[in-house]
Amino acid sequence: MKADIGVIGLAVMGQNLILNMNDNGFKVVAYNRTVAKVDEFLQGPAKGTNIVGATSLEDLVSQLESPRKVMLMVRAGDVVDQFIDNLVPLLDKGDIIIDGGNTNYPDTNRRVAALREKGIRYVGAGVSGGEEGARFGPSIMPGGDPEAWPHVKPIFQAIAAKTEQGEACCDWVGNEGAGHFVKMVHNGIEYGDMQLISEAYHFMKEGLGMSHDEMQATFADWNKTELDSYLIEITADILGYRDEDGEPLVEKILDTAGQKGTGKWTGINALDHGIPLTLITDSVFARCLSSLKEQREHAASLFNNPITAVEGDKSAWLDALRQALLASKIISYAQGFMLIREASESNNWDLNYGNVALMWRGGCIIRSAFLGNIRDAFEANPELAFLGLDNYFKDILESCLPAWRKVVAKSFETGLPMPCMSSALTFLNGYTTARLPANMLQAQRDYFGAHTYERTDKPRGEFYHTNWTGTGGDISSTTYDV
């Protein structure tokens, strides 16, 4: 009996996906460029299963049922291209290559087009959930050549996480790099969510002077509210974890955050598409700032800028902080969906935003209780431009606004850095302001660069230039930027 799918790459994610596929009744061929790892896997975690190994790409391909399905779980970039180049001569028309890594979506666009010319169907599938998700049910976001979907759908939907209603957290996203684009935005929201939670922890610890037991209990309680989510849950676990000496381990971790690029890609794409993804971009910059550890320590020794205590009723401040965190999290997701909508329209992907929310409902890092409400919002109004205009989310944002402003104002007053909660609030203030001061900005641009402006008393689309000094010209600039 030939195998249903081959998986290349036996790092943590690859191994756990293979074991997951085996549990769900699929026969899998495992291969790794370092062949010794195949033997280690077969004699270790895969021992006693139906998983088989391959000693070469030729061996792997020969063991697969047609149309052959080969999934790459390797480092994004050149390694993927190398495996594709080596696989294509071994495959037949109609065979399928799947990239399950964190690939930048333009690479997936390119590969889908190039392989279609050779008759090979290509899928770029975002996979989220980490080690545990891969093993027991990840969120999977496949896109690429739609002709491949019927062949990979039974496997992907079987191994994916399920909602409480039994729906698979996996569905076809769209053509070309749509799947990897949605995964990229997922990771951007993840960056924002993690930073927001870290800011809440910082407010509790440095502002309210709370113990780790108090903070752990608070996050555990918050996880029983609308904040119910994977990241809130693990934050409570982290705060309760003690090192060998009984001290909280989190305080022994150096405060320099790493990143692998997906948050940065999200910010770059937001700039390219003209979408104000302020919170997520600020979360990336917060990691960049954290990396300047030695500079920060030196500056702290020179500046008289201490963090002062937050005075007042602790329970009242904690409730305000909970509301600020909830509202900010909603803005993070809302901005992410704004970017997804713009990309869908500009690339003609015709994405189903409710389905995207469903795919994130379970298995993935940003799984959250209110993703069900996000799905409901887009099912009720597929043209919804901003999630905060849906009645459910609008009511939450409006009710949280006083507490949110109070927390952000207090962070400025006490010297607590709060880049993402304040960014989220500033975004909502701007988005809900009918007239912004950009009229002054346009006047400045026209003054120094003759860039023109539109008028409030004239139809949109008509542009004007003023000779502001009387010594300038009447010719407007349409060909250069200053």
From TrEMBL:
Family per record: Belongs to the 6-phosphogluconate dehydrogenase family.
Keywords: Gluconate utilization, NADP, Oxidoreductase, Pentose shunt
Pathway(s) this gene product operates in, as recorded in its UniProt entry: Carbohydrate degradation; pentose phosphate pathway; D-ribulose 5-phosphate from D-glucose 6-phosphate (oxidative stage): step 3/3
Protein task: Catalyzes the oxidative decarboxylation of 6-phosphogluconate to ribulose 5-phosphate and CO(2), with concomitant reduction of NADP to NADPH.
Domain 6-phosphogluconate dehydrogenase C-terminal: 179-469
First-level EC class: oxidoreductase
Pfam families: 6PGD (PF00393), NAD_binding_2 (PF03446)
Gene Ontology MF term list: phosphogluconate dehydrogenase (decarboxylating) activity
Coiled coil: none
E.C. numbers: 1.1.1.44
Catalytic activity: 6-phospho-D-gluconate + NADP(+) = D-ribulose 5-phosphate + CO2 + NADPH
PROSITE patterns recorded: 6PGD (PS00461)
Subunit structure: Homodimer.
Name of encoding gene: gnd
NCBIfam families: gnd (TIGR00873), PRK09287.1 (NF006765)
Domain of life: Bacteria
Protein name: 6-phosphogluconate dehydrogenase, decarboxylating
PANTHER family for this protein: 6-PHOSPHOGLUCONATE DEHYDROGENASE
